[in-house]
Amino acid sequence: MKIAAALTTASLVAVTGCSSPAPEASTDTGNAGVVARIVTVGSPGTSYGFVSDKVRETVAKTGATAEATGYFPATEPALEALNAGAADIAEVATSGALSGLAGRGDYIFLGVNTKAPGTNTTIVVPNDSPVRTFEDLVGRSVAVTRGGAGEYIVDMALANRGLSADKINKVFLGPGDAAAAFTNGSVDAWAAFSTFIPSALERMNARTIVKREELDGKYDYGVLVVRREFAQQHPTVAKAVLDGYAAASDETRADPTAWLEKQRSTNGFSPSQLKYLEENLGRYEPYDAETTADLQSSIDAWVKIGTLQRPLVASEIIFDYDAAGD
Fold this sequence. Notes:
CATH superfamily of the largest domain: Periplasmic binding protein-like II
Helix content: 25-40%
Strand content: 15-25%
Structural class: alpha/beta
Shape: globular
């Protein structure tokens, strides 16, 4: 995929209305001219790393600049932009990042959102559906996002129940198309995620049959991934991006008012969607022993059920925060 194509793909939503005062000038010129281009999977304005100005501020102190390049509705096109060199850092989920690495992705895990995960994905069916349990879905169709949170919860549910992958007909659709297919009855169920969950329950006459926290196995954390080349050439800038996300996380959790208003005005989110977002605010941090072990468990689980085509060693795909310097 060419860089121009990555930047002009229809799934890329231009960032608007995010202007802010110029970050504090830096006396560090070692990274002069370096731009950390960051993309987010989600709706416009949902990255509190850029609704807050903390990412720009921390990166400016290294002599570099940070740029919110855009928002994607799904993981795959965001990682395509990263792999094409059209972006340097992406805000995604563990599941999508692992799927991309098993292909041709050449990036590493920069940081992890340590909000207790589990509520970001669920499987829903229409209220009048005869399906009452996951086992009732055997032989039926489920709309999922390929290689992302939707496929992850379906695969974990299969693995936890000792069922083979062919027992469920996974229909691979982007979030918008999945919502439409669920609404018009083209699929029997939907592996919904993020703000699509309250939307399905509130507007689409849906009910939940499987929640992520009900499954054994490791969690699908939100993560930041960085192109390996960028991390190697500009480690202090990569570290500063993560520090900025941590600071933005703290600021937003302390007072989410401005951030929630941005979501309401930009995306027209309902009160239940705004409540969902507020309840799921987390904090981005460097990987530690526990989250590294969780990442390895996720890798091992996906390799076992065949979703991940090759094994990976977690410690080899995680950014070395301590070695990056100040």
